Every structure is written in structure tokens, then in C-alpha cells.
Sequence to fold (188 residues):
Amino acid sequence: MNLSKIRTRSNILDKPLSRGKGEVSLSCYAFLFSEIVQYCHNRVHTIPELQGRLTEMGKHVGIRLVDIFFVRERDCRREVKVLTIILLMKSTFWLSLFGREADKVEHATDDDTVYFITEKEPLVNKFISIPKDKGSLNCAVFIAGIIEGFLTGCGFPAKVTTHWHNGTTYMIQFDESVIARDKQLEEN
Fold:
């Protein structure tokens, strides 16, 4: 048997994320996410419970993305500073998930632990119609869960909340230990 004639199979899990664009149609994604929202909605009684469920689902996705992202895209090089992980999220991470960079990143002027990522029109809100009686629902809490799970999996424990402000703003509040570690890295 000639080994040169054996073809290696290409597995979707072996392909880099950056080359995987276009593998899922937008309509398929919209349908799947609307079903996720409907599934969660049928199991809760209030909007905060629904948002909590979507956030938890997003956290599971974010934690799983850590290995995929750093092993396949960055050759196992992990970030150690807060600013670099935030900029990585704004650009490369957002680009891998949503096909474009996040619109804006800001650092809170009065609190060292708080950063904001702003997105004018999150993909998850694009195809969801919200009834008038559920007007405060923001399905972007799913993305907030992804961010929180990703950051926690990278060693940057944080709490991420979603707010309506210039579109949708994700407020990332890092644990004090993360900021202390960051300051210690700067001193050394």
C-alpha cells in the first residue's frame, strides 16, 4: 500500500476559526437563536429569569470558546493583562464570532475594574421581535454570558451586564484580584 495515496481528511474542528466564515447561514443562525429564546421563555415566568437563562447559556458557550480560540487561533498563547484581553475581545474575538469588530471599547473613568464594550446592533437582537409587554428584554445578555464565560476561562474573572445605551453596552466589571495582578505585572 502506498502511503502517499492516502488522503488525510479535513475535519471542521481542525480548521482555524478565521477560515470558517460563511459555514452557517444567517437565516439558520437566526432561526436557531429564536428557538433558544423560545425554549428559555417557555420555562420561566419573568423577564429577569429569561435573561438569567440566556446569560447562563452564553457562559457555557464562552467557556468552550477559550480552548478553541487559543489553541486554534493563537497557538496556545494566552493574554495576561486586562487591556490586551479587552482589545483582543474587541477585535479578533468579535471578528471570529460576528464577522466584524465591536463598535467601541471604553474604560470607566471612576473605576479601574470597569470596561465597556459597545455594539450598535447586536446580531442576537437583529431578528428577535419583542412583544410590548416584554419591552425590557435584551437578548444580548446571551453575548454578555459569552463574554463572561470567555474572560473567566482565560483567568480574568468578571461580571458582565448588558445595558441599553447607544445600542447595547456590555459592562465588564473585573474582580479586584485581576486588577491587582495587572498592577503587579506593570511594576515588574
About this structure: The beta strands are 104-107, 114-119, 158-164, 168-174.
